[in-house]
């Protein structure tokens, strides 16, 4: 990547946030509830990344996602820690690929605890695949003007003589 003097790179202090220090099994155990709990922050971040096409402009939204994730796991720790640990341990130890299929009983226990104590219902199958419209307070970025090159090769004039292709069309199978 080529950098010039006019490109602003953020300071390390701007990028430093507390990390979510959990294992893969723990993240998978809380993934469905976390996705629903932090849905607005995640959608805001992904919309920013899609619209801006520059990760430097979405640092604040990324920090919001991390803060939401930390808040979620703190709530889970205070309300359903033993059920969550049983489910994460089952995911970790029951298969080599962190499969959910062997842990449905502990999943049910965690889902019941999450619903009773935190009011978080496990999303239905396919919930995250549904199309949704995200309402944001962020202004839409300005359209970048189309680049104009003064030394570009001029286009062929409209009244130019256009001879047929020397060896015929390459779409010969599409005729008739």
Q: Could you characterize the architecture of this molecule?
A:
The chain is mostly helical. The chain has a domain at 18-139. 47% of the residues lie in helices and 0% in strands. The protein has helices spanning 12-15, 24-37, 39-52, 59-94, 104-118. The longest helix has 36 residues, at 59-94. The radius of gyration is 26 Å and the shape is elongated.
Looking at this protein, list some descriptive labels.
176 residues; single chain; 5 helices; mainly alpha
Largest pleated sheet: none
Radius of gyration: 26 Å
Order of helices and strands: HHHHH
Quote the average pLDDT.
91
Structural class: mainly alpha
Strand content: under 5%
As a percent range, the share of helical residues equals 40-55%
Topology:
Elements: H1 12-15, H2 24-37, H3 39-52, H4 59-94, H5 104-118
Helix pairs in contact: 2-4, 3-4, 4-5
Summarize the structure.
This protein has helices at 12-15, 24-37, 39-52, 59-94, 104-118.
């Amino acid at each position: 990547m080529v950098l010039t003097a006019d490109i602003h790179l953020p300071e390390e202090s701007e990028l430093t946030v507390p990390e979510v220090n959990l294992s893969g099994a723990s993240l998978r155990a809380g993934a469905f509830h976390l996705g629903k709990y932090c849905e607005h922050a995640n959608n805001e971040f992904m919309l920013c990344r899609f619209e801006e096409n520059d990760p430097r402009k979405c640092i604040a939204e990324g920090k919001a996602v991390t803060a939401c994730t930390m808040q979620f796991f703190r709530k889970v720790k205070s309300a359903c820690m033993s059920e969550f640990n049983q489910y994460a341990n089952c995911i970790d130890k029951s298969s080599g690929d962190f499969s959910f299929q062997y842990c449905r009983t502990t999943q049910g226990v965690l889902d019941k605890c999450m619903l009773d104590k935190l009011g978080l219902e496990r999303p239905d199958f396919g919930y995250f695949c549904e199309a949704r419209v995200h309402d944001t307070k962020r202004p839409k970025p300005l359209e970048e003007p189309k680049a104009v090159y003064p030394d570009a090769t001029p286009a062929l004039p409209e009244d130019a003589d256009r001879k047929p292709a020397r060896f015929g069309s390459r779409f010969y199978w599409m005729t008739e």
